[in-house]
Specification:
410 residues, alpha+beta, FAD/NAD(P)-binding domain, 2 domains, seven-stranded antiparallel sheet, 14 helices
């Protein structure tokens, strides 16, 4: 089945009051999934999007290939003050349900490390699939719509835009978090949540690089562009993946993962040699090849770049032979490479953070229907909620799962 152009969508009449069963604010991953699911049930659905295009974050995700889900998804892959909240939705619409949908559209995909699934061709295929499903089920989508006011009137909601007025029985907030504002992210969803007396769990950048303190950066910035496999831990969470030195600090998948668990002034422990035991290796090499220089041993034995070795070793150590290393020297080197202690100055912020940590408090949201426990027929789905996934397709799976479940109940 081939995708249809979103230009084929029928548009609602802008000259009069328009009534719908469901209005969804936000044409991102969760909003579109909710829209097509509700429309499949025969609901009259309208999606309002303040940007000029739908699904902009889908298009840029995964380097344009969209890491749309993961083969291994569980509640353990998510952060929330209410850690059990995501379990119901993830079980009712899981990764295999979404895989079945893309296979229906013959979208070619591949598995990368850690069970991550990417489109082989383009992220646009995922967006086109969602828009096609919306079109086939007669979902109305209006773009470039600025909402000026939302009110609850009896059993319906009234939504005013700059040049229109809509009402609906069910209102779904799928406006996302505040990460990557250049892609149109705003705090609109949080404002609506507060308007209807919902609490907001503190929001912070998630899946984001670290900026190092100036003193430390003066040493590491010469390594900008250097990548290596590392194990990183913070607050009892451990990840192993690639680490990248940047001109501002540290990035790469392993840093993005651990950033979800980091708070200001926390120490991050970094093992630059996760597959080796430097102490044992040095002891053995000292006896077998005592005339070998330490810098040569480190480069050939560990695979670390010469540039990194020169940064990590003192001038005295660079010209030291293995036979001159005593027990304390070896212990110090082991500690330096296996347990590099870093206290980042800050993160790179919401400007480039892939997700927003925190959001609408899930204590007042039904984990089955996603309806507010405070306001009847008001729903919150996707990233606007206090549910944040790991890097690796987990946040998209949360969008699909939460959007589907709400779409079954609006």
């Amino acid at each position: 089945m081939t995708a249809l152009s979103p230009l084929l969508f029928s548009l609602v009449n802008s000259s009069k009051m328009n009534s719908f069963d469901v209005i969804i604010i936000g044409a991102g991953a969760s909003g579109l999934m909710c829209a097509l699911t509700a429309a499949q049930r025969g609901k009259k659905v309208l999606v309002l999007e303040h940007e000029k295009k739908a699904g902009k974050k889908i298009l840029i995700s995964g380097g344009g290939k969209c890491n749309f889900t993961n083969y291994d998804v569980s509640a353990d892959n998510y952060l929330s003050q209410n850690p059990h909240f995501c379990k119901s939705a993830l079980s009712r619409f899981n990764q295999y349900d979404f895989i079945a949908l893309i296979e229906k559209y013959h979208i070619a995909y591949e598995e990368r490390q850690f069970g991550q699934l990417f489109c082989i061709d383009s992220a646009k295929q995922i967006l086109d699939m969602l828009l096609t499903e919306c079109y086939l089920n007669k979902v109305n989508i209006l773009l470039n719509m600025s909402i000026s006011n939302i009110e609850k009137k009896d059993e319906s909601f009234s939504i005013k835009t700059s040049d229109n007025h809509f009402n609906c029985h069910s209102l779904v907030i799928a406006s996302g978090g505040i990460s990557i504002p250049k892609m149109g992210a705003t705090d609109f969803g949080y404002q609506i949540a507060k308007q209807f007396q919902h609490k907001i769990v503190r929001t912070d950048p998630g899946l984001v690089p670290f900026i190092l303190p100036d003193k430390l950066l003066s040493q590491t910035k010469q390594l900008s562009g250097t990548a290596l496999n590392a194990t990183v831990s913070c607050n009892d969470k451990i990840f192993n993946d690639n680490l990248l030195f940047t001109h501002q600090g540290l990035s790469g998948p392993v840093i993005l993962q651990i950033s979800n668990y980091w708070h200001h002034n926390d120490t991050v422990n970094i093992n630059l040699l996760p597959l080796d035991n430097l102490s044992d290796s040095l002891q053995q090499a000292k006896h077998k090849n005592p005339e070998q220089y330490l810098k040569s041993f480190l480069h050939h034995k560990t695979g670390l770049t010469k540039k990194l070795i020169h940064v990590w070793l003192s001038d005295n150590e660079l010209d030291k032979k293995l036979k001159h290393l005593n027990e304390q020297n070896i212990s110090d080197l082991h500690q330096r490479f296996h347990s590099w202690q870093v206290i980042p100055a800050k993160t790179s912020g919401f400007r480039i953070a892939e997700v927003t940590r925190g959001g609408v408090d899930t204590q007042d949201i039904s984990s089955k229907t996603f309806m507010s426990n405070k306001i009847n027929n008001l729903f919150f789905i996707g990233e606007v909620l206090d549910v944040t996934g790991w890097l690796g397709g987990y946040n998209f799976q949360w969008a699909w799962s939460s959007g589907f479940c709400a779409g079954k109940h609006v």
